């Protein structure tokens, strides 16, 4: 039931859902490997992990997951320090606005490289270790992977790819005892939207609008996602694999699988 003592790699750990998950895992006394691009931010999150559990065993790795050599370093450093990998949380992700009429190929490559290609390579290199421990993989996807939305085309395509990878990989690895699932958050209060191009005023409007687009009447919190990631990573979910779990205040149920919704993003 517990993840105490298990070695968990979390990408995108320097902010948002990744940071929240790292802190929660630290509290539960997992051995946490925090991967992020920004050294300062990663150090800040590491100190929050220590505040949650002063005895926690941490490894911080400054790396950009779109860099193939850096991915090798993530695996090597983790094995050198902890000798094994039990949990892989593929969380690093970016969003970028644009429709088919105005998304550049540079934007497309940036989103797909970060949200899918990186996961593919990191997962590929982690799998031999996960098979040894009969570990778990949790991919952080999005409600945008399950339902069509306009205005963030490359992001939606990348997240649907993550969902399908999750299901296919689950089937490939089930005979080897490795479970693979994703969480699909709705709107969660993090930096991702502003980094993707929203200004503060647009963001506040977007959050207000989220009160009507989510059945539970609000955007979600990082902790609510972290708790679900923990559930999927732990043996509490021992009979669940290949699942894309919406953690979105009911939003997926409000959008038809066939008729999209325009995001004023
Ligand atoms: C680092 O943190 C600052 C302050 O929260 C934030 O503005 C910035 O986007 C972060 N950078 C990265 C790469 O996470
Ligand atoms: C992943 O990156 C490694 C280098 O770390 C490279 O050798 C390998 O070909 C890459 N795999 C894929 C699927 O891109
Ligand atoms: C990619 O990662 C490697 C290993 O950490 C590093 O030496 C190299 O400078 C990185 N490349 C870029 C473009 O950041
Ligand atoms: C991109 O095109 C869509 C229509 O396809 C439009 O609604 C949106 O405002 C455009 N965005 C930019 C930045 O031009």
TrEMBL record:
User: Which organism's genome codes for this protein?
Assistant: Hermetia illucens
What is this protein's record name?
Uncharacterized protein
Q: Domain of life, per the record?
A: Eukaryota
One Pfam family named in its UniProt record:
adh_short_C2
Q: Does the keyword Chloroplast apply?
A: no
Sorted alphabetically, the keyword list is:
Oxidoreductase
By its UniProt entry, which PANTHER family does this protein fall under? EG:BACR7A4.14 PROTEIN-RELATED, ZGC:101858
KW Oxidoreductase (keyword) present? yes
One molecular function GO term is: oxidoreductase activity
């Amino acid at each position: 039931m517990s993840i105490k003592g298990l070695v968990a790699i979390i990408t995108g750990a320097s902010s948002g859902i990744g940071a929240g998950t790292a802190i929660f895992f630290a509290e539960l006394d997992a051995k946490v490997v925090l991967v992020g691009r920004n050294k300062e931010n990663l150090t800040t999150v590491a100190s929050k992990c220590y505040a949650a559990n002063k005895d926690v065993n941490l490894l911080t790795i400054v790396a950009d997951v779109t860099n193939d050599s850096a991915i090798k370093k993530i695996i090597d450093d983790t094995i050198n320090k902890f000798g094994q990998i039990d949990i892989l949380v593929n969380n690093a992700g970016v969003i970028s606005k644009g429709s088919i009429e105005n998304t550049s190929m540079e934007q497309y490559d940036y989103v797909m490289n970060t949200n899918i290609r990186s996961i593919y390579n990191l997962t590929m290199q982690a799998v031999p270790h996960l098979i040894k421990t009969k570990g778990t993989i949790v991919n952080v996807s999005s409600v945008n992977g399950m339902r069509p939305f306009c205005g963030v085309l490359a992001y939606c395509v990348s997240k649907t790819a993550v969902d399908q990878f999750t299901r296919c990989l689950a089937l490939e690895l089930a005979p080897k005892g490795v479970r693979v699932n994703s969480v699909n958050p709705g709107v969660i209060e993090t930096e991702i939207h502003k980094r993707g191009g929203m200004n503060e005023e647009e963001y506040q409007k977007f959050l207000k609008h989220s009160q009507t687009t989510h059945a539970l009447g609000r955007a979600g919190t990082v902790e609510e996602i972290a708790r679900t990631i923990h559930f999927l990573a732990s043996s509490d979910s021992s009979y669940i694999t290949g699942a894309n779990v919406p953690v979105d205040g009911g939003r997926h149920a409000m959008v038809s699988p066939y008729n999209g919704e325009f995001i004023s993003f």
